[in-house]
Model the fold of this input.
Amino acid sequence: MEEKKELDLEIRIATIEDFDILTDISRICFPEQLKWRATKSHSRKCWDSIINSNNSELWICSIYGQVVGFIVFTINRDKYNKNLEKKRYSILDIFLMFISNPEGFFKSIVYKLKQRRLKKALDTESSTDDPQINIYKRIRKNLDKCVPWCGPIAVLPSMRGKGISMKMMEHCFQRAKSLGYHEIYSTVSKSNMMSRVMMAIVDFKLIDEVSCTMFYKKKLVINNDK
Done:
């Protein structure tokens, strides 16, 4: 029986030369995210904000020199999100997002308005009768902001089923442990069954969920632990 040939897989930090292929992968893997339908100049600003940030790292996976996926390793999630929110869309960006998916475009506007309302509610100490806001408040209270997060993660459809996602996640685990962290977090869309299965395989535990988002935590075993 012929032995299965091991992939020549490399995980390395991303550079500016990788930005366009990373955008192409995002357009394929995240078709519902309209920001990848904007101009590539806008996408490059997003990638640049990640690799030049002290709060996050962008790692890519290549096989035989071809980039097939990426993963974001984040230490301060709030600062990471704020950096991305600072990237303003041009009129051309907005036009491209609209014509690519008019229905999704208007849904994204409604979603952003809801997120603003949610943020405003979270920043106040007053109680609320909204169960979703109360869940978010509990999550914000229970999750330490200064802990690493694993993801977003993406792998080209043609390269799935080869364990690439798990290898990239393991890379994040090792990176977190090298910085002295004992746990790592991640989020998954409730509808993404494949990712939810993968979370269980790599020993992430579901700790909370709200709306369509599921929150996971994984304990990291550091060698010098007693």
Summary: Helices lie at 19-29, 40-51, 77-85, 91-100, 102-122, 131-142, 164-178, 193-201. The chain has one domain: 9-219. Strands lie at 9-13, 56-63, 66-76, 146-155, 183-189, 205-210, 213-219. Residues 24 and 86 are 22 Å apart (CA to CA).
